[in-house]
Amino acid sequence: MARAPLLQLTDISLTFGGNPVFDGLSAVVQEGDRIALVGRNGSGKSTLMKVMAGLVEADKGDRVVPAGVTVGYMEQDPDMAGFATLGDYAASGLPEGERYRIEVVAEGLKFDPERTVATASGGERRRAALAKLMAEAPELMLLDEPTNHLDIQAVQWLEEQLKATKAGYVLISHDRAFLRALTRATLWIDRGDVRRQETGFEGFEAWRDKVWDDEDMARHKLDRKIKAEARWAVEGISARRKRNQGRVRALQDMRAERASQIRRQGAAALSLDSGPVSGKKVIEAVGLTKSFGDKSIVKGLDLMVQRSDRVAFVGPNGVGKTTVIKMLLGQEAPDSGSVTLGTNLEIAVFDQTRAQLDPEMTLWDSLTGDADMRVGGRADQVMVRGTPKHVVAYLKDFLFDEAQARAPVKSLSGGEKARLLLAKLMAKPSNLLVLDEPTNDLDVETLDLLQELLDDYDGTVILVSHDRDFLDRVATTTVAMEGNGKATVYAGGWSDYLAQRGAAEDARFDAKEVKPKAAPAKAENRKSGLSFTEKHRLDELPGVVDKLTSEIAKLEQLMADPDLFTREPVKFRKATEALVQRQELLAAAEEEWLVLMEKSEA
Known about the structure:
The protein is of the alpha/beta class. The protein folds into five domains: about 5-205, 3-Layer(aba) Sandwich (Rossmann fold); about 205-260; about 265-345 and about 430-490, Rossmann fold (3-Layer(aba) Sandwich); about 355-410 and about 415-425, no CATH class; about 495-600, Orthogonal Bundle (Helix Hairpins). About 40% of the residues lie in helices and about 20% in strands. Strands 5-6-7-3-8-9 form a six-stranded mixed β-sheet, sandwiched between helices. Strands 14-17-18-12-19-20 form a six-stranded mixed β-sheet, sandwiched between helices. Helix 3 (about 100-110) crosses helix 4, helix 16 (about 495-515) packs parallel to helix 19 (about 570-600) and helix 17 packs antiparallel against helix 19. The radius of gyration is 30 Å and the shape is globular.
């Protein structure tokens, strides 16, 4: 006998502030479902998830959860009143004697259960809420942006846990790589309706585009039909008034249908002005070293950032990425080493804490209250890249309506706050853009636009992100900070970094395997025949040689670029060192193969 669904919503209607969020919405979550919940910022994803969790009561409709089924919800802003530590909050739903579960999850998510609630950051509080959910292990997990404030290692840990769980779950996330790896069905909220497709996020964008194309075609056909019927009504209705009243009513119905169609929300009108051209050399760091007490942030970092580079910093939370960026911008002094800034720099900073936004100010005042943006003494005009624009019109470019213009910043969702900060940032010319966790809370479509914007931006970008897909799309150089002061510069984005790091580790392994055997024994001391270990080694050496030969070819191709040395000297130096190392390993492997072949033939 088939089991009942874990959760069923039927004919749900919900209105906030006079505007319907949902009307007649139905959705089902079955046992073992792995669902991506997607939609534009403001479409109601978090609200729907709260309805699923039973935290928001619908105006109409039914929510059914079978007896005995447990539903867990990860809150974005958890209420920790009455709890002394994050661990106390996270363990509050567990039976006595099972607090050890929190310790296990805390290690994977990298948060300190002993941290007091009063001193915890927003990110630490969110990680505690996620740990609480993971430790309780309900049959249905509702996860609203679980990867926000997690570093890549913690995201990968969470990914493995969700792959292994038997529970069903619904995920809201901006992280494409996370959604692609985990989901097998998609719920798409679009203009108050929810559509479901039994494929994971991998197929979502093609499905969405097909739905929109079909809508556009149907709308075009309806417009043509209305136009034709309206012409008939004007030209021929007087002669056949009684006989054709049905056709007149049909025309009225078509017009009503057309008027009721809700147009898709447009994309945010993102635009960046790169302002004055900076010098070719933007930042040069030599021997950059910094420590706080016994904690080493960076040791001897050499980095050259040139105009139009996209440099990404990756590494665990707390490793010191923001500190290094502050040193590169001249905002913090290194213990040793030097930083030289290029000429004519105009710097714009997108900070992950959204500190540039006053939660008590309205959106209107957030823009007009900035002296650099306000047009003269007018309180309704902002200067947008040198052109005056009414503040409401500019906010509409970023998908805010007129009613929101007078609302306080604290009333905005995380994605809306990110869009407002982008509005402030993009109104001013810049040629060095610093983005500290820009992807948090943004919907997939806005992320696409931001990526395209950065592709077209003539200036230089320094980026901190834990979004692997976004890093691959944007970064041309990756600085991996791995702790204990180690910072290594790699060409390309996240996947390129993993591939190069893997090649380097393989090379070190090959060196250990090859070098002790590289010096050939004197012929007169060789024994005839091969031992089992030597025979195995002889069999694997051709693979080692092929691998090293392939890596050498790739490095030689990279270094064939005549401008590489002047454009990216650090990359050139590292490529040269890697080439010399692999050539030495190849020579040793070939010599070892000759020795073993001679011995096998003796």
